[in-house]
Amino acid sequence: MAMDPFRDFARSTDNTLGVEWEVGVLDPETLDLVPRAADVIDEVVAKHPDTHLEREFLQNTIELVTPVCANTREAVDALQRDLTRIQDVAKRQNLLLWAGGGHPFTDFREQALSPKITYEEIINRTQYWGKQMLLWGIHCHIGISHEDKVWPIINAIMTKYPHLLALSASSPGWEGLDTGYASNRTMLYQQLPTAGMPYQFQNWDEWVGFMHDQQTSGVINHTGSMHFDVRPAAKWGTIEVRISDATSNLRELAAIVALTHCLVVHYDRMLEAGEPLPTLQPWHVAENKWRGARYGLEAVVITSRATDERWVSEELSLLVDELLPIAQDLDCVEELRLVEDILERGAGYQRQRRIYEETGDWRAVVKSSVQEMTELTW
After folding, report:
1. How far apart are CA 103 and CA 169, in angstroms?
2. What is its biological role (predicted)?
3. How many helices and strands, by DSSP H and E, does the chain display?
4. What share of the chain is helix, strand, coil (3-state, %, to 5)?
């Protein structure tokens, strides 16, 4: 029987972890993005063939990709190794590296698209909104043992959407303006017709039917994939969580990855134990997503189907305590505890906004983020 790329889920024996981190390439004088990612990637891979780097939607972006890992420490160690290699090459090429959910002053009309047919199709189809996709994120792949678990876990993860977003939110600026949002990236990205919140599918068959519909109607032919905030990756046997903004540094990335990994494993174990997983009405999920994007760590979020509410910062503190047994099993307690670090020190958007309010200069904000990549080690 022929393989069905939508139905056939490559079941993972363990809750393995893979991480993708998108970073930008900057001109050291202007601190603006430049289309030099391919130059850097080519030199790094020539010197270190074991380095997994990907070209992204725009020619200013490098995606770092970890191997399959057991836990956050392994993943971040791999990212640190590859980041060091990239930084060495970037320095020789007179370039800087930077990461964040969105660059606060670059002109999207001046940024070159990477040469890939699906990327060109996205722009042809989406026009104005597609051209604005100067967005950088963190993607976490967690291995799942059976496809029947996938959608119950995804629907449960969506109840913690604002938690994962608020911690990572780092895109308050856009085209020289303070948007008032903690994550403007979140609001922009959902403008793509294949992006945003996934539908709350009840089982794997519903998802397979949906994907076949998208193929029949030509949607996937135009875009290459569905770009939901959380989605199955059947080829790898994983759930891919794509909620978080890219962090400026590996220390905060470790916190986001540990929290994401622990959450998915927590819900997986609940299923194994026959326990019901949490869900929220779609309208509550949508409202929580907006609140996380708008207010970040200052958001009040909906926590139950009965519309109970709590500060997301309080929720995160409770969540760390609840997930500690999972973190101990995954050997990522130290990394999960970094969530508390972010709560105390402030998220990326808060630091960026503080610098902008003090200086009135987005270049000072970008310069600070560049420094954080080197200085905020985990």
Report:
1. 13
2. ATP-dependent carboxylate-amine ligase which exhibits weak glutamate--cysteine ligase activity.
3. 15, 13
4. 50, 15, 35
φ, ψ dihedrals at 138, nearest 5°? -115, 130
Which token pair is 81? 């190794």
Find the domain containing 91 and state its range. Answer: 17-345
- Tell me the C-alpha to C-alpha distance, in Å, between residue 239 and each of 18, 85, 234, 284, 304: 10, 29, 8, 22, 23
In a domain, 98, yes or no: yes
Strand-pair category, 195-196 with 227-228: parallel
Q: Count of domains in the chain?
A: 1
With respect to residue 368, please indicate whether it lies within any of the assigned structural domains: no
Distances (CA, A) of 191 to 72, 123, 272: 31, 12, 36
Residue type at 210?
F
* Residue that is written with structure tokens 């998915």 in the block: 264
The tokens describing 157, both together, are 């993860």
How many Å from the N-terminal Cα to the C-terminal Cα in the chain? 48
CA-to-CA dists, residue 164 to 104, 138, 261, angstroms: 21, 11, 11
In a domain, 370, yes or no: no
Q: Enter the DSSP assignment of 21.
A: E
Under a CB-based contact definition with an 8 Å cutoff, are residues 363 and 105 in contact?
Answer: yes
Query: Residue type at 6?
Result: F
pLDDT score, position 192? 84
Give the confidence band of 2 by pLDDT, cuts at 50, 70, 90. low
E strands, 280-345, are 300-302, 309-311
Q: Which helix (H) or strand (E) holds 231?
A: strand 230-233
Please give the pLDDT value at position 59.
86
Q: What is the pTM of this model?
A: 0.95
As to burial, measured by CB atoms within 10 angstroms (0-12 exposed, 13-18 middle, 19+ buried), residue 366 is buried
Residue type, position 281, single letter: Q
pLDDT of res. 131: 74
Give me Rg for the CA atoms of the chain: 20
- The verdict on residue 351 lying in a domain is no
Q: How far apart are CA 137 and CA 157, in angstroms?
A: 17
Q: Cα separations (Å) of 151 from 156, 198, 326? A: 8, 10, 21
Distance from CA of residue 84 to its chain's centroid? 21
The residues, ordered by sequence, that sit 6+ positions from 315 with a Cβ below 8 Å of its Cβ are 163, 301, 303
